[in-house]
Design a protein that fits this description.
By secondary structure, the protein is mostly helical. 64% of the residues lie in helices and 0% in strands.
Length: 103
């Protein structure tokens, strides 16, 4: 995998995406030290990353599967219901943490 080549090819895009000059300078410094390529992970490493943690049990998977199978889709709102919900929300806006801090 040609990391340095990829970074060089996308250098301008990456620099444009970074918000501060400090981050841009750090990127340029790290670009100089970037390895030319990286060895692909071994099959053993890939399997280890793909395995679920020990605390995930088959019962958890079965429970989630059952929940998804039994889930009923939420019916779509009609345009009239949607408009009424928007108007209700404008009349009685939900209280957020930001609103509570101002009071």
């Amino acid at each position: 995998m040609a990391i340095k080549q990829s970074l060089e090819a996308n250098k301008n895009f990456i620099l444009d995406s970074l918000p501060t000059q400090e981050l841009k300078d750090d990127f340029l410094k790290s670009l100089e030290n970037a390895p030319e390529s990286v060895e692909a992970p071994s099959l053993e490493q890939q399997v280890k990353e793909a395995e679920a943690p020990d605390y995930i049990t088959e019962e958890m998977y079965a429970g989630i599967k059952t929940e998804l199978e039994n889930m009923k889709p939420v019916p779509k709102m009609t345009p009239e219901e949607e408009k009424a919900a928007i108007e209700e929300g404008l009349k009685n806006p939900p209280k957020s943490d930001a609103n509570n801090e101002e009071e």
